[in-house]
Write a structure and sequence with these properties.
The complex is a heterodimer of chains A (113) and B (112).
Chain A (H helix, E strand, L loop, with lengths): L2 E2 L5 E3 L5 E8 L8 E6 L5 E7 L5 E3 L7 E6 L4 E6 L8 E7 L4 E2 L3 E5 L2
Chain B lengths: L3 E4 L2 E4 L5 E7 L12 E6 L6 E5 L3 E2 L7 E6 L2 E6 L8 E7 L6 E2 L3 E5 L1
Parallel strand pairs in B: 2-11
Antiparallel strand pairs in B: 1-3, 3-8, 4-5, 4-9, 5-6, 7-8, 9-10, 9-11
Classes of the chains: A mainly beta (113), B mainly beta (112).
Chain lengths: 113, 112
């Protein structure tokens, strides 16, 4: 059974940094492409970042230069390093496998002073 | 960026009756390999999204057969043959042909 469990969310001040983690079980992170999707409170879904099995990374313009997606194959874990956080980054962040075949339960990031 | 437009944005439905959701893209979504990677998701209140349909018309494992997807090019449809109470939620389409991958705004389904 595939399981994804996001951790690392919380309350952070504008300009601060957070690192989200998504340890996976039931499949191998490095064999698949994976990404992060966010959902602001009461809003729709936005795919913010993607990493291919070969390591190529992609970012939405809204986070480019501030967020970094990575993975640790030895820990079978996906990460999202978020720097220079802004109020508009407030959202539930989900990790997702390929084009959304599996999702985690999400972790809430709140950027506020 | 590819813009995905969904209609209606809100859909009151009667239990046991059919429902239909439209998703249109700002450009053709046929990929270089000939497939059309347009997918449909259901998000029930308080839950993570769940994929129902992949590549226009393929039902994911465990998805009831009352859900079906169709379409081509830049015009796609999700249908529920007979709505059940558990179908309440928001339905999103997603294109993964071009980066950035983009979702539609969602159609909110509620029971009349």
């Amino acid at each position: 059974e595939v399981q994804l469990v996001e951790t690392g969310g919380g309350l952070i001040q504008p300009g601060g940094s957070l690192r989200l983690s998504c340890p996976a079980s039931g499949f191998t992170v490095s064999y698949n492409y994976m990404g992060w999707v966010r959902q602001a409170p009461g809003k729709g879904l936005e795919w913010v970042s993607l990493i291919h099995s070969g390591g190529t990374t992609f970012y939405a313009d809204s986070v480019k230069g501030r967020f970094t997606i990575s993975r640790d194959n030895s820990k079978n874990t996906l990460y999202l390093q978020m720097n220079s956080l802004r109020a508009e980054d407030t959202a539930v962040y989900y990790c997702a496998v390929e084009d959304g075949v599996y999702w985690g339960q999400g972790t809430l990031v709140t950027v506020s002073s | 960026d590819v813009v995905m437009t969904q209609s209606p944005l809100s859909l009151p439905v009667t239990l046991g009756q059919p429902a239909s959701f439209s998703c249109k893209s700002s450009q053709s979504l046929v990929s270089s390999d000939g497939t059309t990677p347009v997918h449909w998701f259901q998000q029930r209140p308080g839950q993570s999204p769940r994929r129902l349909i992949y590549r226009v018309s393929n039902r994911d494992s465990g998805v009831p057969d009352r859900f079906s997807g169709s379409g081509s090019g830049n015009d796609f449809t999700l249908e529920i043959s007979r709505v059940e109470a558990e179908d309440v939620g928001v339905y999103y389409c997603l294109q993964t042909t071009y980066w950035p991958w983009t979702f539609g705004p969602g159609t909110k389904v509620e029971i009349k």
